């Protein structure tokens, strides 16, 4: 009777693990990146900026407490938000900088979740390694204690749900469309101004030239003409300078263009990150379910099976965590690069 029940539980766990393996293979095929994207990632990993961000982050993580209370956004974000806050720029550019700040904070939150997940998983696997030679005792075996703790604690990777990622995606899409729309309107305004300048410039030059000639003729017969000619010439120069003043529209158009490109890249980065987080979140939930079955049954055979599965999948799971961590550092790098480009468009043209 007991043997039959035990076989049933073993089969239940085996089916769950095999089903999970097939599902994971399908996800890996679905989300696999092309060789070109792989090449871009490898190239990014070799850059000095990426290495510097990793060193900064790992340095701060090494100094942080086990609670991981250190927020890396304020340390890694460039240029800092306090610099942006003191600048007088278009409202949409302010929204862009706030959106990129929010994206970095999301990355920061996921990094904390990775850290906590890695610690929780390591506690289980380390206990398994230390307890392999211990005699089986369902009331004292430390593996049960760690598996029970693993089941009871919240999944750190669930801190940002798929619904929250979708909300971020939707808000950034609205911002992207608004930036593109505003850039289009600004570009049309600039085109109209240039056209009016060309058309009006011809008439202005002709009329001013005629007036100047008339005043020169009049100057031969009056002292007033000698005084009026320089005044009219000066006014003509001011009008010409004002007429060709389209620089502000050009600057705004370029700034909006760079900001829109930054938001577009940011959306793609966060979409990729959300898929990676979802895959890892499902993986953690799967192993919590397996551990829960083991803890509730207190069967030596089931425990041995679960221990073997944890050991066999440890390397794969840690590789997935590292892959997500690398992508987050790339996201920090992308955000910083985009923010610097927008800042260059703002400050470079103001000099």
UniProtKB/TrEMBL annotation:
One of the Pfam families matching this protein, by short name: DUF677
Keywords: Membrane, Transmembrane, Transmembrane helix
Family: Belongs to the UPF0496 family.
Name of the molecule in the record: UPF0496 protein
CC annotations in GO: membrane
Transmembrane region(s): 223-240
Organism: Mucuna pruriens (Velvet bean)
Disulfide bond listed as a keyword: no
Location relative to the cell: Membrane
PANTHER family, alphabetized: UPF0496 PROTEIN 2-RELATED, UPF0496 PROTEIN 3-RELATED
Organism superkingdom: Eukaryota
